[in-house]
Amino acid sequence: MNIHDYAEQKKLSLKQIMDFTTSVNPLGPSSKAKHILRKNIINIDFPPDNKLRYITRLIEKRESIHADNILFAQSAKQLLHAIFQTAKTKTVLVLPPVSQAYQETISLHKLTPKKLPLDKTNHFSPDLAAILKAMEKTDTILMPYPHDIAGTSLTMGDLLTLISEAGRLGKTLILDESYRDFTEMASPVNEVIKSETSIIVRTFSLFYAMAGLPLAYSMGPANIIQDMRQHVFPEEINTLAVHAAIASMKDTFYKKRTVEFINTEKEYLLKAFNAIEGIVCFDTPCPVLVLAFEKKQDTLKTFFSGYHILINEFFDEQEGYYLKVPVKKHKWNARFVKTLRNALGINKS
Fold it and tell me: Distance between CA 62 and CA 53 in Å, rounded?
């Protein structure tokens, strides 16, 4: 159930709900993005530029690549659709825990998922050798970089090996970089566009907090990008989304402010969670913490819902119970901690 379904069911406004199922930048959109939206609202009578010239040039310059290597779409989900159609995917390798967005996309395309679960004892870190072995029996590898729930990733060396092996075996490798901007991780853009079968997917919905004006793009070999174009419709892209994306990328202080804010709030949350017995808290490079519970919690989701808080729970292959906790504004984070302590029957400290 997403926030809109919940709001309708409970007859609430969106502002009355604390949504901990999404990892949107807690600072909200860039101030420059909001300014450019106010400035350009008077221009919505002009038709959109289907070639997206200005933002394409900006990414060309930032990534040192050519326009033939870039493809825009309304959302990351639309790009995944285009990739699956182009690659004629039937089986896809995923690394559980698998996000709801991935599950829906895989189900929509009637793909057969091959699961290679991440191991808690290894701090949910992907294992290159296991991935190389598992991908031999699949068409496509869906690799969030970093992982969209656990926040972990392959090292750059291992990632380059994976790109090379995917090309050698003729397997499509999708590197979903939706969370990478939250981290200091480098992107293998140059290696990907020189590869045979790898492609990168990025979105402005999370780090740039533009979920309400969705925009995403892929980067990859020119021949793959060209084949994907027949499955993507640029005229569906909102003109204001493009203006906001350009302004956001040009806001040089936005990332610094985001990192400082998230680090401060993470410190608070880590201290609070580590003080609760029966929980192991895993930090990640992303604006996310993962809570592993010693005991299964059958009523936690319902308890939180009673306070109009939506949470993201998941299970491992042994039915171990976990929560993905995205960093939010301090008031929300404090409410989450208080509600969790109450749900577990812990007296106030």
Answer: 14
Contact present, 117 and 95 (Cβ < 8 Å):
yes
66, 42 Cβ separation under 8 angstroms: no
Q: Dig out the tokens for 157 from the structure.
A: 């060396």
Share the mean pLDDT of the chain.
95
The single-letter code of the amino acid at 272 is A
Task: Check pLDDT > 80 for residue 348.
Answer: no
Query: Sorting pLDDT into bands at 50, 70 and 90, what band is 327?
Result: very high
Asked whether residue 349 carries a pLDDT value surpassing 70, the answer given is no
pLDDT in tens, 304-326: 999 999 999 998 878 889 999 99
Question: How far apart (Å, rounded) are the C-alpha atoms in residues 204 and 290?
Answer: 23
Q: How far apart (Å, rounded) are the C-alpha atoms in residues 24 and 20?
A: 10
Query: What SS3 string covers the chain?
Result: CCHHHHHHHHCCCHHHCEECCCCCCCCCCCHHHHHHHHHHHHHCCCCCCCCCHHHHHHHHHHHCCCHHHEEEECCHHHHHHHHHHHHCCCEEEECCCCCHHHHHHHHHCCCEEEECCCCHHHCCCCCHHHHHHHHHHCCEEEEECCCCCCCCCCCHHHHHHHHHHHHHHCCEEEEECCCHHHCCCCCCHHHHHCCCCEEEEEECCCCCCCCCCCCEEEECCHHHHHHHHHHCCHHHCCHHHHHHHHHHHHCCCHHHHHHHHHHHHHHHHHHHHHCCCCEEEEECCCCEEEEEECCCCCCHHHHHHCCCEECEEEECCCCCEEEEEECCCHHHHHHHHHHHHHHCCCCCC
Residue 151 contacts residue 284 (beta carbons within 8 Å): yes
| Tens of pLDDT, residues 39-56 | 999 999 999 999 999 999
- The per-residue pLDDT for range 162-221, each reduced to its tens digit, is 999 999 999 999 999 999 999 999 999 999 999 999 999 999 999 999 999 999 999 999
**Residue (of 81, 109, 178, 95) closest to 142 by Cα position:** 95
